[in-house]
Amino acid sequence: MAFVKDSMTLHVDASKLPAEIGPDALSPNGLAYEVATAVLACWQGK
Predict the structure, then answer these.
(1) Is 6 left (phi over 0), alpha (psi -120 to 50) or beta?
(2) How would you write 19-39 as a 3-class SS string?
(3) Does the structure show a pLDDT above 90 at 4?
(4) What is the per-residue pLDDT for 6?
(5) Domains of the chain, residue spans
(6) pLDDT tens profile 19-36
(7) Which burial class, exposed, middle or buried, applies to 3 when counting CB atoms under 10 A from its CB (0-12, 13-18, 19+)?
């Protein structure tokens, strides 16, 4: 997954994660999206 904000790019690679993750059985893409949105919420551009 790739996200762009303030002319910077965040790339989250979940390709090596297992098919289900954690007690909620998230998919690798679902977890990548959760991580990316958490990072983007705190991301401050220069």
Answers:
(1) left
(2) CCECCCCECHHHHHHHHHHHH
(3) no
(4) 77
(5) 2-42
(6) 999 898 999 999 999 988
(7) middle
Phi then psi dihedrals of residue 39, to 5 deg: -65, -45
CB 4 within 8 A of CB 43: no
Cα–Cα dist 3/20, whole Å: 23
Half-sphere exposure of 45 (CA within 13 A, CB side): 7
What lies within 8 Å, CB to CB, of 21 at 6+ separation is: 27, 28, 31
Q: Measure CA 37 to chain center.
A: 6
Pick 25 or 45 by higher pLDDT. 25
pTM of the shown model? 0.72
